[in-house]
Amino acid sequence: MQNFQITTSHPSETLALGKKFGEIVQRGTVILLNGPLGAGKTCFAQGLAAGLGVPKTHPVTSPSYSLMNIHCGRLPLYHFDLYRLSELEDLDELGYDEFAEGSGVAVIEWAERIDLLSEASLEVAIECLDENRRRFTFVAYDDRGRQLLELIAV
Ligand SMILES: Nc1ncnc2c1ncn2[C@@H]1O[C@H](COP(=O)(O)OP(=O)(O)OP(=O)(O)O)[C@@H](O)[C@H]1O
Ligand SMILES: [Mg+2]
């Protein structure tokens, strides 16, 4: 499966959706999260972290000063937020390639700020339909992404 769409009606539903992905996601998966401010990118990433077994004592938040945080779960979770990315070099300095192709799962908020599609397993585009409804469009770009969607969309 290449594409999948689903609408959530409450943050708890977005958390639950992210959690389903986190429970089955494989090592080396790169997930791009796009959508406007307040769309629910961090909320989805929090669900993903829960599904990966990241302890609540180290919660996924919107990093104010860092572009990336590492969380330890069943697999390492590399949570990027590129909102404040000013230079492409910043990403290189972070060692992006190392993390994105590494032994964990990379989830990247504001991925559209730079063109990362060629490296992605899955792109998640979130649209705000109203105050509480969010439409998620998933597009798979590699085998890991396709497998994820096949397992989720049953
Ligand atoms: N169905 C929903 N799913 C997710 N969040 C929702 C939903 N309905 C309402 N919300 C609200 O939308 C906001 C989503 O915030 P979140 O920080 O996850 O967005 P974001 O996309 O990461 O924003 P930013 O671009 O600032 O990082 C929260 O305040 C949450 O309560
Ligand atoms: Mg966010």
Task: Outline the structure in words.
- By secondary structure, the chain is an alpha/beta fold.
- The chain has one domain (3-152): P-loop containing nucleotide triphosphate hydrolases (Rossmann fold, 3-Layer(aba) Sandwich), CATH 3.40.50.300.
- The protein is 31% helix and 27% strand.
- It has 5 helices and 7 strands, in the order E-H-E-H-E-E-H-H-E-E-E-H.
- A 7-stranded mixed sheet has the order 1-7-6-2-5-4-3.
- Helix 1 (11-24) crosses helix 2 (41-51).
- It is globular, with a radius of gyration of 14 Å.
- It starts with a strand and ends with a helix.
- It binds adenosine-5'-triphosphate and magnesium ion.
- The site of magnesium ion (MG) has 5 residues, from helix 2.
Shape, principal axes of CA atoms:
globular
Low-confidence stretches: none
SS class? alpha/beta
Give the tally of structural domains: 1
Q: SSE order in H/E notation?
A: EHEHEEHHEEEH
Tell me the name of the CATH homologous superfamily: P-loop containing nucleotide triphosphate hydrolases
Main sheet, how many strands, which sense, barrel? 7 strands, mixed
User: Could you tell me which ligands this complex binds, including any ions or cofactors?
Assistant: adenosine-5'-triphosphate, magnesium ion
Rg over C-alpha atoms, rounded to the nearest angstrom: 14 Å
Strand order of the largest sheet: 1-7-6-2-5-4-3
CATH topology: Rossmann fold
